Amino acid sequence: MAAEVIDGKAFAGRLRERVAAAAAAFEQQAGRKAGLAVVLVGDDPASQVYVASKGKATLAAGMASFEHRVPADIAQAELEALVRRLNADPAVDGILVQLPLPAALDDQAVIALIDPAKDVDGLTDPNIAALANQRPGLFPCTPFGCMLLLQDRLGDLSGKDAVVIGRSQLVGRPMAQLLVNANATVTVAHSRTRDLADLVRRSDIVVAAVGRPEMVRGDWIKPGAAVIDVGINRLPPAEGEARGRLVGDVAFAEASEVAGSITPVPGGVGPMTIAVLLRNTIVAAHRIAGIPAPAGL
Ligand code: GUN
């Protein structure tokens, strides 16, 4: 039986509508718009596309957008000074430094400077601690978006066996933590994992976030499993194609024969990341202003 294809684009659209309503109410109460600042270092084409769409989505939600594009050869001290200015700016509720940074820069030192109250990426130590200790905080956008999709599809995740493939700072690690907090039994797999296929075969929930095109095969999937594909990989162009196809970390056609539900690439997890970024920004704005955030965000 074919899997239900999880429509992340539609789900993200509904979340963005709730954020826009909350942003309008916030502006009424606070007498100012909520604001998101995005810092883009250098001119990586993929990052430019992401940053432009973040700016557009921020404005569409009725929030203020501040884009800071700085050259790839910016000095560490200058970038840190920019983050300090954004920390101090009362018009800014959220700060996102687009990653990866050029290799000459110390990304962890830059992240550590971000005011945790404005850390809408959930990457600072206080927010990681809040996630680990189940306290309120701001949590990474992509894994949070994956959780919303899983909980919408499956309801309670208690006792489910989950595998997270990948242990990155932005996705794998926080994803595992969120699943543990939701009472799933979680295994984190990575490049040294032995017999990944066998592990995946025992899992009710599969979150693939490795960046390897179509690595997870259909015959690895437990019948009925929920499959969340975080990968966005561009294949080399085939004959007659100007650009290669975008594929995930999961072989979609095969896996959707076996899974109970599965996210497509594109149109699955991708749109959720920006929607959750907007959600985190409006939540941060409420906390900073001392106004209770509306429920359902
Ligand atoms: N680069 C790719 N995804 C992300 C993200 O979610 N946050 C940041 N800061 N950089 C990214």
Q: What's the CATH topology label of the largest domain?
A: Rossmann fold
**Strand order within the widest beta sheet:** 1-11-8-7-5-6
CATH superfamily of the largest domain: NAD(P)-binding Rossmann-like Domain
- Please count the beta strands (DSSP E, at least 2 residues each): 11
How widely separated are the two ends?
A: 34 Å
Number of helices: 10
Low-confidence stretches: none
Structural class: alpha/beta
Any ligands, ions or cofactors bound here, and which? guanine
How much of the polypeptide forms β-strand, as a percent range?
5-15%
What is the CATH architecture descriptor of the largest domain? 3-Layer(aba) Sandwich
> What helical percentage do the residues reach?
40-55%
Total domain units: 2
- Give me the Rg, rounded: 19 Å
Q: Given the C-alpha coordinates, what overall shape results?
A: globular
Secondary-structure map:
Layout: E1 4-5, H1 8-30, E2 35-41, H2 45-60, E3 64-70, H3 76-88, E4 94-97, H4 107-113, H5 125-132, H6 141-154, E5 161-165, H7 172-181, E6 185-189, H8 196-201, E7 205-208, E8 226-229, E9 233-234, E10 246-247, H9 252-255, E11 261-262, H10 269-289
Parallel strand pairs: 1-11, 2-3, 2-4, 5-6, 5-7, 7-8, 8-11
Antiparallel strand pairs: 9-10
